[in-house]
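Q: My labmate handed me this sequence with no annotations at all. I'd like to see what the chain might look like in three dimensions before we decide whether it's worth expressing. Could you predict it?
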Amino acid sequence: MKENIDLNRSIIVIDKPKGPTSFFVTDYVRKSLGLNKAAHAGTLDPAVTGVLPIMLGRASRLLDYFIHRDKEYVGVMHLHEQVEKKKIEQLIKKKFLGKITQLPPKKCRVKREERERQIYKFELLEQEDKDVLFRVRCDAGTYIRKLVHDLGVALGVGAHMTELRRTKASIFSEKEAITLYQFEEAAEEWKKGNYEKLKKILVPIEVISKVMPAVEVKEETIIKLSRGSPLFLNMLQDKEEAKKFKNANFVAIMSKGKLLGVFRPLSGEKEMIARPKTILA
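A: Here is what I predict for the chain of 281 residues:
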């Protein structure tokens, strides 16, 4: 009974192993489920493991609302000379927390120009001789390998990263990530008509309500809104929900808990309160 699963409105969170590229894993998931499109939220280098959220089918249209959010990593830094943990922590506090400036690595595909990034947390968990286990929470687009390199330069001894794992990407954590083996097993069962395993690992796209305000609209407005109509105040199930539009960049529009699309609030308007940005229905 494959019809019980709406793959085109779902997200699957893979625990990417070391070796394959993020594109390879995403394409493998897409082909395994017979979908035309899939997109991942944040590229991981082949050697990096961890959380790789994959938007399936029409859910791919919502990628931008997830991809530009915070990421968290755990890794191992190898110092080229031994340095006391306290000294490293003092330097991190002074130069590597808050707003920093990064120049992308030479091998990176993006244009090599300095860009500002926010480091929310950079803590040292353990140290054994020259190897240091660390945790970083940062803006999307932060180069952890470069962060470690720059710290080594600032310490005057040099350093490089030997291991890295992403433990969180946007609202998705490693607790909900599944291995490729678990995915393969669920996909094979689904192809045989047994959909329960796949259903358990899919995340409904309505989870977008965790990254932006969500409001309910009247059932009779669904067709108009799905065809690109602006959102008017009288379309809301509860006009009090209009308060959620204040200071919001985007609002998720729902009907009976199902996502219709993402709208951009309008300021200074009384009746027309938002315009469509991404229609999903």
